[in-house]
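Researcher: Next entry in the queue.
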Amino acid sequence: MKNQPLEGAAISLISTSFYSISNSDGDFKIQNLPKGNYIIEITYLGYKTINESIDVKEINETYTFILEEDLLNLQSVVVTGTFDPRIQLESTTSVSVLNSKTIQQTFPQGTASLLQNIPGTFIDASAGEVFTKVYNRGISASAEDDMGWYYVSLQEDGLPVSLVQHSYYSPDLFHRVDLTTKTVEAIRGGSSSITALNAPGGIFNFISHGIRDDFGGEVQISGGLQGEENALFKVDANFGGSLGNNWYINAGGHYRHDEGARNTNFTFSKGGQFRFNVIKKNERGYLKFYGKILDDYTNRWTGVAATNWDNPTPAFGQDFNSTSLLMPGFSGNIPDGRSLNNGSTNSFDPSQGVYARDLAFGFDVSQDLGNNWSIKNNIKVSAKNANWQTSISNAFVSLNNPLAYFISGADFPIGQVVFRDTQSGEELARINNSGILSGQSIQYLGQGTLPNDAIMGTSAWYKDNTADELMNQFTLRKEYKNHDITTGFSLGLSDTSMFTQGTFAYVTYEPNPRMLQVTLENPGDPVIALSDANGLSNYGGLFFVNAEAKVSQLATFINDRWKISDNIHLDLGVRYESIKHKGSKDRFAPFAQNGGFDGNNNTAYDNGILASTGQKDNFNYTYNYVSFSGGINYKINEEAAIFTRFSQGNKAPELNYYFNNFSNVPINQEGAVQKITQLEIGSKYNLKDFSFTTTAFWSELNNIGIANFEFDSDNNSVFYTPIQFNTSRTIGLEWESVFTPIENFAFRFNGIIQKPKATEWKIYNAAESVDISDDTIEDFSGNTLPFNPRLMFNFSNEYQKNKISAFFKWQFMGKREGNVANGFKLPAYSIFNLGLGYEINEKLSANLLVNNLFNSEGLANFFGENSFGANANGATPEFIQANPDASFVVVPVLPRGTLLKLNYKI
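Model: Structure for this entry, 906 residues:
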């Protein structure tokens, strides 16, 4: 706010060790300062840096400085994606900064949702806080729905949140946004090739609060409603201050209870985190000890059904804003295929969702060694666990489809089938399916029917993932004449395991699904249980993966920032990286025991359990590569600069390559290293009332391995197709701007125009079976790259005067191809957000946030035909032409949410 004191501004005297930080009154003091001439530098996020000459003639001389607002943070020092901290205006790469004000203007729906404010960044946060997708500049092909952060690094204070990724295990599982985050720095491609571990697509660094001279902080209580009046409650806090003798502490976190944006019969999210740092400042630098404890339950939204390929509308009584199609909560037990002989089981309750825990501690040291030498080392250890108990897929399965019965694992489930509600025991429907094998329809016996004459094709999805990790970044810096040289190394070690088990579940196909207990009751024959009392069927028979791996990542680098002249800086860096994957994957087979797991021939649901055979397939591969990046920045004057950068990076395979492929066969082939080449040319202007940055880019991704998730109806198994290697190219223009034509008003406009192309692209068509005799390879080279809009932007206006503030934001997402076949387009959509704030007094303020004000039904994702095991690539132009009335699965954006925040500053 204008004409207000700034607390936490950093004040330093250039070429000296004198340093201070302003207090809550905006005052600072530098003690024992000799008389003389100095250059004082004052920096504060959101304001232009001051560099002025001062002449100290008296011991107690005072000075007053007024900082001018820095609309795009171009004068702020950036520490991400660079080896030597520098202001944005002098950077040779595309950088964006989100300050605390922007963070507080965002509805609390997760990490990815916040990053929608960064220009040129594609975000799919339709699933909620986790299971999100984030990528830049068309570098997207392997950022699948179950591993959407494939190319980018999500960081906390300069180190990755997690070192490894694989299916349903991405860093967003272990990251939450609250008041402990001070700023977010984002790098789009460019220098991330040489500054991040195996993340050439970009860096998103969440930076915590640091030193405060006076003890203080903030408490925030939030409450609101989402969707059809589902409650959200959250408490945030952050405190910090001096402990004396140059020791400082900062601590905080949050707890939330969220019923979810759509309708379920359980709490969608609950839990929170605690974070802290303790800093010891000395004359030459600092020592920092920090940590995080995360203990959190959440879930993710799946797709809903639609019809009308040209203008998708909800089908089967579903609603884009309120329908979730998640299984209701219940308490069940599923035999553990890793140790059936011991009678082990895994508890399963869909209301748990994903239970994420992360215990992390680190130590960061930065010291000036004298003679223009300095070192910095940041080391962190963590123990992570993510346990999934939720549903996967929610496809329409007609009662006339033999799959509805044979997927139970029963030998011949033909005759009278009875469906009962698991909660009440009430018989909902009794049918005769005797004619389905000859193409005839089922017959209802009695008055009861099932909604839509169907069941839901869904799986009880149990996953247990663990990882113990160590990561370290060391840099040694030497400033010599016109060169600023940084070298060092990065180290990452991860000991991880993954277990996945898929169990079919009988569920009604309707907006509020119910679990079904299913039996085969042919007159004169014993009753055969096709499901257990909870509706679970074919225990562990759909999917089985049990694997472990040790991952080591080692990189060394050197970078030189060469001052060619006062206005021209050349930035050159090279990085050598070596990544080793060593591990094993269990072979499996159906559990061979008469009568299944319980030895009872009348319980068919436990006859097909997939279990470890004791045999393992080992892998041990090392990926070595060199990445380089070079840029040049020409500073036209104090307000303007232009830059260009060329980068060639690499992306080694993630563990999903071994875990998802090589089913019961030797892992005899290493994965392919993808190549990322980028060229960017940009400009930055920072005028009094108008600031903007713009970057034109050319981006190419090579050696993309693509495999599809398929279902074989002949043997009721899930499998991945053989990998095909492809290439994509994207050219585009990113921009970010702020305009303040009159006092108290600001207009922000950022976005991207791009042309994404699948230059060489082939898809393996398995013809819906594991039998390879009818398989084909389809060529879609030259088509538009899917899920990348040609136009995407954010436009907002902000007002702030005295005690009142307000903003109104328009987020536009352009049309996107739903698959590489370009058979279906996801329509463009707009989302409008509103915020109102009032400062009640100096300590207490209130803010009202409304997300998706007009309840847009925009579609963020597409999963293909509405059938069990289908995927987006199956919806080719030929398929759509032949099936104009078919239903398909889409994932809508989240509905309206309204939140009231009360903030109390201490």
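Model: The longest helix spans residues 877-882.
Researcher: Noted, moving on.
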